[in-house]
């Protein structure tokens, strides 16, 4: 059995400005740093064995702040941190940097709300999960793994676990720096993906 702790990054400068960042490498705000540290306190009662994070700054910074607080609270050395581009937010193509309110007012948000739809030049949620799962499988095993990523990645992963159709995954809200705990058996994320025809069993 593996306990997975899924944590979206803390508030970023793009979040504060209500702009879509995608692969733009934006920083955490002061509030985002505080949220990351609070997440560390929330997971401190778990014996985290491994940590994996998107290599984008907002996720990696969240991981480092949270794990530092975790280590201090437990009086232990921080677990190893693996950074990988496989857990990046979805590439939003032509919508990266755009203001959310403008996109909603001009009905340009719909490509972001489906499972297999993508903005021009960008990725679908299906593509994001297909590239993310192998990274998670590479560190799977007994114990507890903390995963620091982005709304799109976590939205897709939670969609794999839901009984709702994948077409509804895109509307799920993923709050900043709020740990989501998931327990999976031996098949792990690979089995969940296979249920939806993404990978062979």
Provide the descriptors you would attach to this structure in a database record.
201 residues, alpha/beta, 5 strands, 39% helix
Molecular structure report:
The protein contains 8 helices and 5 strands. The longest helix has 18 residues, at 57-74. The mean pLDDT is 93. It is 39% helix and 14% strand. Strands 3-2-4-1-5 form a 5-stranded mixed β-sheet. By secondary structure, the protein is an alpha/beta fold. α3 links the parallel β2 and β3.
Average pLDDT, all residues = 93
The number of domains is 1
What is the C-level CATH assignment?
A: Alpha Beta
Strand-residue proportion: 5-15%
- SSE arrangement, N to C: EHHEHEHHHEHEH
Give the topology:
Layout: E1 2-8, H1 13-17, H2 30-42, E2 50-54, H3 57-74, E3 81-84, H4 100-105, H5 110-113, H6 125-137, E4 143-149, H7 151-161, E5 180-184, H8 188-195
Parallel strand pairs: 1-4, 2-3, 2-4
Antiparallel strand pairs: 1-5
Helix pairs in contact: 2-3, 6-7, 6-8
Would you summarize the structure shown here?
The chain has 201 residues and is α/β, with parallel strands linked by helices. The chain has eight helices and five strands; from the N terminus they run βααβαβαααβαβα. The mean pLDDT is 93.
